[in-house]
Inverse folding.
């Protein structure tokens, strides 16, 4: 039997859809240069000085492809969107903690989030604020999608 | 098993497989395990010397308060250097005692640099200067090669 969605359902679904699309755009923008220049991204990960040095390259490669896979899923596989959003949320949370730790340690390096250029702006509290905004969007998409399904 | 957990697990697995496959076929392939501890920056972090990239070094140059010190051999310095930099090659400190003395006396903070990220003369020089009692030391890690590529201010180029 075909079910009709209420205007509220549709609004919630639309909001969560567009937030997911926005997250895709960000994930693609972030993943592009990391895929092309894995050495540069590994250097950015190393500069946090948070991981054992032996794990830097593997972590850098894994994060790059995790972001890319999540972006593709958010864009093309709606049934898996929730799973991808949870992963993006976890990645953002870890990154935000790493950036905040870096700032507290007085780092002068960029976060490696969207640009790997040596001329990229060093991480600062604005980076943390931006990440908190992205985490909020992610949570909104998750809640929006969940409620739309429930209704 | 919870379908969401299953999906998350599959995404994590697929990403790992892709990361392996992509790195194997990548023209800029990186080693799976690299000893970053040997890098000059890791050494600087251990020694608590402040390391800065190009962006911050440019800021320091334009602010005009810091004095840039070129740790490369004199021949390289003469072929081109960061604008206003003073030459103090780490390999020949004994021949540059006068410069060394002047730098130890100055109140200005120093930014020490070398050729590129693989060249550790700048770090060695910074450690030497610190041992001689100089504080306010900054290590510019990207080196002169990247400085020049970024079209940052240089002098002495023919």
């Amino acid at each position: 039997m075909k079910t009709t969605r209420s205007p509220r359902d549709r609004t919630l679904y639309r909001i969560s859809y567009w937030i997911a699309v926005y997250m895709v755009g960000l994930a693609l923008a972030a993943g592009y240069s990391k895929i092309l220049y894995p050495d540069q991204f590994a250097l950015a990960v190393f500069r946090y000085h948070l991981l054992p040095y032996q794990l830097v390259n593997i972590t850098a490669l894994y994060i790059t492809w995790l972001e890319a896979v999540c972006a593709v899923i958010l864009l093309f596989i709606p049934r898996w969107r929730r799973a991808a959003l949870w992963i993006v949320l976890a990645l953002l949370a870890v990154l935000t903690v790493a950036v905040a730790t870096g700032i507290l340690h007085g780092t002068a390096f960029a976060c490696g989030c969207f640009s790997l250029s040596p001329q990229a702006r060093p991480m600062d509290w604005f980076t943390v604020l931006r990440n908190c905004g992205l985490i909020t969007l992610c949570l909104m998409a998750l809640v929006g999608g969940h409620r739309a399904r429930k209704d | 098993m919870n379908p969401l957990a299953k999906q998350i697990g599959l995404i994590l697995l697929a990403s790992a497989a892709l990361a392996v496959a992509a790195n194997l076929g990548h023209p800029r392939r990186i080693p799976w395990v690299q000893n970053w501890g040997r890098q000059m920056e890791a050494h600087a972090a251990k020694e608590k010397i402040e390391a800065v990239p190009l962006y911050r070094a440019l800021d320091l140059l334009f602010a005009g308060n810091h004095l840039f010190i070129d740790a490369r051999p004199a021949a390289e310095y003469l072929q081109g250097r960061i604008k206003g930099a003073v030459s103090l090659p780490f390999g020949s400190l004994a021949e540059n005692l006068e410069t060394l003395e002047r730098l130890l006396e100055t109140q200005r903070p120093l930014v020490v640099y070398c050729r590129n990220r693989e060249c550790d003369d700048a770090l060695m020089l910074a450690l030497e200067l610190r041992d001689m009692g100089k504080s306010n030391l900054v290590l510019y890690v990207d080196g002169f090669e990247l400085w020049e590529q970024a079209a940052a201010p240089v002098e002495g180029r023919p």
Observations:
- The radius of gyration of chain A is 17 Å.
